[in-house]
Design brief:
- This protein is an alpha+beta fold and 389 residues long.
- The protein is built from 11 helices and 9 strands.
- A 4-stranded antiparallel β-sheet has the order 2-3-7-6, with no helix packed on it. Strands 1-4-5 form a 3-stranded mixed β-sheet, covered by helices on one side.
- A hairpin with a 2-residue loop joins strand 8 and strand 9.
- It binds flavin-adenine dinucleotide.
Length: 389
């Protein structure tokens, strides 16, 4: 198991505090002891057991960046970056902790009313609540403005109708942030985010837990809303029509999270491959002895170093509140493309064993592919970057 990076990138400014090393070790141990042995089972089951969320909550890993007054650990994005890194290094496929912590909780922390924060955040931190965010629909993914799900005002509440697909944590989540049109005549300005607490939600149904190319332990699902009534107080924030702006403000962090995940997996892939090629014998030596192997791994290490320095820079910007949409898109698109390329080359160096699902590199190959699609397809990222030219 990998304890440190195979790269020689110095610790960035944001990573200097000693407490962060202690935190990183504790997170690594949690993933290694409580999760890693179970990953093969999770992959077969297509879902992570509910208890693991409670355990992560008890360990203080859920809501790592939620303020203490709302039951969180009072950390910040540095803690989330460390959780992401450790999760990738330990290969804890499919556990949607990063989505819950670094993507969804920030919506509630940033835009929730005081009442919403007090109602949901403590349970998000304990693991009593598992979250999901439902943007994508069968007919609208990249073109989010075109979603068809509606939330119609009805007395002191909203009635939600529509269907969502590809929703991570979809079978498990009991608090779902649903993107819906509160005013279908207004395009982006008619979109709001409304929380659905699934336990008492008549008309809410979970569809299939979808079978995927990779990320087999993640319960990526269909969701259906048929006249689901929620109180008006479940509108995120206190004004309708703010959903699209809220998404645009929070998507850069989500995209940078994907960049961080990419670098974490690249580090693991290089580590695993170096171990493998040094042990595998052929033609009177090892696979590592071939100049081709050394050159491929030298290139991978160089590119990985460039990527790590860049994502560290993005984290630095994010910590200062200066990570803009275009730079976050660079982190997402460039690193995920690189991740797929390096993992593919590392698989090649494993020969036939690299194609066997029991080998970590085979799982990484399958798990990496979606990084270029979710969180905004890489083509959309390039569009956002091009707008700044
Ligand atoms: C495993 C997984 C987990 C996911 N989790 C979630 C989740 O938790 N919540 C959620 O809401 N969604 C989730 N998604 C959905 C994901 O965000 C969408 O799949 C993604 O945004 C792309 O949308 P789409 O699939 O509708 O593709 P489309 O919008 O149909 O696009 C198809 C392809 O067309 C090209 N394309 C699209 N737009 C442009 C453009 N403007 N310029 C050039 N080319 C373009 C791209 O190549 C793109 O890949 C998840 C998806 C997967 C696979």
């Amino acid at each position: 198991m990998l304890y440190s990076s195979p790269l020689n990138v110095p610790k960035p400014v944001w990573r200097q505090e000693e407490d962060l090393d202690i935190f990183s070790d504790a997170v690594g141990q949690f993933f290694e002891k409580e999760c890693a042995p179970q990953v093969p089972e999770w992959r077969k089951a297509g879902i992570v057991p509910r208890e693991i969320w409670t355990k992560a909550g008890e360990m203080g890993l859920l809501g790592a960046s939620v303020p203490e007054e709302y039951g969180g650990a009072g950390g910040d994005f540095r803690h989330e970056a460390i959780i992401i890194e450790q999760q990738q290094w330990k290969g804890i496929d499919g556990f949607g902790i990063t989505l819950h912590n670094a993507i969804i909780a920030p919506y509630i922390t940033a835009y929730g009313t005081e009442e919403q924060k007090r109602r949901w955040l403590p349970k998000i931190c304990s693991g009593e609540i598992v979250t999901a965010i439902a943007m994508t629909e069968p007919g609208a993914g990249s073109d989010l403005q075109n979603i068809k799900t509606t939330a119609k005002k009805d007395g002191n509440g909203y009635i939600i109708n529509g269907s969502k697909t590809f929703i991570s944590n979809g079978q498990t989540a009991n608090l779902i942030l649903v993107c819906a049109k509160t005013d279908p005549t207004k395009g982006a300005k008619g979109i709001s985010i409304i929380a659905v607490e699934t336990e008492d939600a008549d008309g809410f149904e979970r569809g299939r837990n979808l079978e995927k190319v990779g990320q087999h332990a993640a319960d990526t699902s269909e969701l259906f809303f048929n006249d689901v009534k929620v109180p008006a107080s479940n509108l995120l924030g206190d004004e309708e029509g703010k959903g699209f702006v809220q998404l645009m403000q929070k998507l850069p962090q989500e995209r940078h999270v994907i960049g961080l995940q990419g670098v974490g997996m690249i580090e693991r892939a290089i580590h695993e491959t170096v171990e493998y090629v040094k042990g595998r014998k052929a033609f009177g030596g090892t696979i590592f002895d071939f100049q081709n192997t050394q050159f491929k791994l030298a290139e991978a290490k160089t590119e990985a170093t460039v990527a790590k320095v860049f994502v560290n820079h993005c984290t630095e910007l994010l910590m200062k509140g200066e990570l803009d949409a275009a730079t976050a898109s660079m982190s997402k698109y460039w690193v995920s493309d690189l991740q797929c390329k390096i993992v593919d080359e590392c698989l090649q160096l494993h020969g036939g064993f690299g194609y066997m699902d029991e080998y970590p590199i085979a799982q990484m190959y399958a798990d990496a592919r979606v990084q270029r699609i979710y969180g905004g397809a890489n083509e959309v990222m390039k569009m956002l970057i091009a707008r700044t030219l």
